[in-house]
Specification:
The protein is of the alpha/beta class. The protein folds into five domains: 120 residues, Rossmann fold (3-Layer(aba) Sandwich), CATH 3.40.50.11220; 64 residues, no CATH class; 84 residues, no CATH class; 113 residues, Cobalt-precorrin-4 Transmethylase, domain 1; 128 residues, Methyltransferase, Cobalt-precorrin-4 Transmethylase, Domain 2. Helices cover 28% and strands 24% of the residues. It contains 15 helices and 28 strands. Strands 3-2-1-4-5-6 form a six-stranded mixed sheet, with helices on both faces. Strands 13-12-11-15-14 form a five-stranded mixed sheet, with helices on one face. Strand 24 and strand 25 form a beta hairpin. The longest helix is centred in the middle third of the chain and has 13 residues. The protein is globular. The chain binds S-adenosyl-L-homocysteine (SAH). The site of S-adenosyl-L-homocysteine (SAH) has 25 residues, from helix 13, strand 24 and strand 26.
Length: 552
């Protein structure tokens, strides 16, 4: 959800809303709403961009302003997310758009939280106490146009009877009459739209796939039409666990927008089924509770948070964190990954045994859970991604191969520090970890020497720590043999975090005492330069060009 405010006066209400939806993001006009998490410059443009992103949108200003800003988009086909106007002081909630995306439900939820009455204006919903066009989870409307006609007939005074099981309609105030000519039919069967009926399909059919193939959607279509079942009645695709990583299966599920569940053996399934072309259609009386059918394919996302500030985290990482059920990583990074929800399971550790942590992540993911392994910066730069790969190359269990594994990049400390300083890594550079925990010190010395001889700019990670007190000093001694004392150096400490500190100096001035384990050290090349910034301080950069090599 996105919450948009214009000025600081709306911030308190926006924050009350955020208490209800912790994942929501508060957007504020730059310079007028400092407490917002994201800032925009042009209200209308920003609102339209958020609308196109197809996420629920709550705007704390006059309804008219919202309507005028979005008007041009309404003719477009495509997204129609819920849009609500909310009075700055929280005294009124007006659902504006997204009737079929649950805007009234949201309005009720928000109104209940703020202790006010929502401004519901949908006649059918007011009269019947339910939105017939938006059946609850587990049911799907067959045809929207037919549905709209049907509801307007009922509003015009027609009575109705119900055939099939529609437990949610029992509490509604429908004009029920057992002799009525209008019928609400709850059935998995398909048939052409009739003007006198509202067809609602329970999602009560599961499809067991013996043999995935590229033409799976077409085969399924065929099986449905021979058995006379509606596509909307499909609840999920099922397959045995050995197919978990099969790409055709996942492509079909994505194309058909159906969840995919995996079972050990067919004995887990409801008994009744119709066979067809390598497919079995399993029909149940009720909508299927797919959470209780086999398990889904687990996912392990290895993510990089970036250096620290939320705005330097990629949207893909934010999404993975929001979707995670389990989060693993160093304590500090797990804390940096917020906002998190109370239902998310945290496994923070100060455990340096990365392989063990990777194994734990695979075990959780292999049981069907959504797992995120957190690194700071980029996960592939002296962090967890390589440990996860190492674990998977020699898996402790075959089930690990079924896990959906993804590595999501982040802004690494060297890049974040360089950006703060200007562009010291603007030409060829290398990244070196000065930690000799997992590689011999001799290897590090050799690399430093070669990098110095090659006149590469260098970024040092893990430059020093209590258990590695002398290594940086040795590295600097070595650099002094090949680089002039005027060589520029940038020190970035806690970049992107509240305690951020940036410093530029020369190699001649640099001593190990200036550096700690939260510092990233950039050593410039012979070409790295600096010049004063207009606002004080200085810019450091390495030019894109290089003087021709001279031979002497
Ligand atoms: N995966 C991380 C690096 C982990 S190694 C990344 O891509 O950034 C840990 C080292 O990274 C630290 O010792 C420090 O040298 C550097 N580092 C990580 N975050 C930093 C930050 N916010 N500011 C400065 N240096 C940082």
């Amino acid at each position: 959800m996105n919450i948009v405010i214009l000025g600081a006066s709306a911030l308190a209400t926006a924050q009350r809303l955020k208490a209800l939806y912790p994942q929501a993001v508060i957007h504020g006009l730059r310079g007028r709403a400092d407490g917002a998490e994201r800032h925009y410059d042009e209200f209308g443009e920003h609102l339209r961009a958020l609308y196109r992103a197809d996420q629920p949108l709550v705007v704390l200003c006059a309804a008219g302003i919202v309507i005028r800003s979005l008007a041009a988009l309404l003719a477009e086909k495509g997204a129609e997310p819920p849009v609500l106007a909310l009075a700055e002081d929280g005294s009124a909630v007006v659902p504006l758009l997204g009737g079929l995306a649950g805007v009234n439900r949201l309005a009720r939820e928000i109104a209940a939280h703020l202790g006010v009455t929502p401004a519901i204006t949908t006649s059918g919903e007011l009269r019947f106490g339910t939105c017939l066009l938006e059946p609850p989870a587990g049911y799907a409307l067959a045809d929207l146009q037919q549905g709209k006609r049907f509801v307007s007939d009922l509003l015009g005074g027609e009575t109705v009877r119900i055939e099939g099981q529609a437990p949610w309609l029992e509490a509604a105030q429908l004009p029920v009459d057992n002799a009525a000519s209008r019928i609400i039919h709850i059935t998995p069967e398909t048939r052409p739209a009739q003007p006198d009926e509202l067809l609602i399909h329970p999602r009560s059919v599961a499809v067991l796939i013996d043999r995935p193939s590229a033409d799976l959607p077409a085969r399924l279509q065929q099986a449905l039409s021979t058995t006379n079942l509606a596509p909307q009645a499909l609840a999920c695709l099922l397959a045995e666990k050995s197919w978990m990583a099969n790409t055709e299966l996942h492509a079909a599920a994505a194309e058909l927008k159906l969840p995919l569940r995996f079972i050990h053996s067919t004995s887990e399934l409801p008994p009744e089924h119709h066979a067809g072309d390598g497919l079995h259609l399993l029909l149940s009386e009720q909508p299927l509770d797919i959470e209780r059918l086999g398990q889904r394919r687990g996912r392990l996302s290895v993510v990089g948070l970036g250096p620290g500030a939320a705005e330097h985290m990629t949207p893909a990482v934010r999404r993975a964190l929001d979707e995670a059920e389990d989060l693993l990583g160093y304590d500090t990074y797990v804390k940096m990954a917020g906002p998190l929800r109370a239902d998310q399971c945290l496994h923070p550790s100060d455990n340096r045994e990365e392989l063990q942590r990777a194994a734990h992540a695979f075990e959780l993911a292999a049981s069907g859970r959504r797992v995120v392994m957190i690194s700071s910066g980029d996960p592939g730069v002296f962090a967890m991604a390589a440990a996860v790969m190492e674990a998977l190359e020699s898996p402790q269990s075959e089930a690990w191969q079924g896990v959906e594994l993804e590595v999501l990049p982040g802004v690494s400390a060297a890049l974040a520090t360089a950006a703060k300083a200007g562009a010291p890594l603007g030409h060829d550079f290398c990244l070196i970890s000065l930690s000799d925990n997992l590689k011999p010190w001799a290897v590090i010395e050799k690399r430093l020497e070669h990098a110095a001889l090659a006149d590469l700019a260098m970024a040092f990670y893990n430059p020093i720590s209590k258990s590695r007190p002398w290594q940086l000093g040795r590295a600097l001694d070595l650099l002094h043999q090949h680089r002039a004392p005027e060589t520029l150096v940038v020190l970035g400490r806690d970049i992107g975090r509240p305690a951020e500190a940036l410093r530029s100096l020369t190699l001649g001035e640099l001593t190990p005492e200036m550096v700690d384990m939260r510092t990233l050290v950039i050593i410039g090349s012979s070409q790295t330069r600096r010049f004063p910034r207009a606002d004080g301080g200085e810019w450091v950069y390495t030019p894109r060009w290089y003087p021709a090599l001279t031979t002497d």
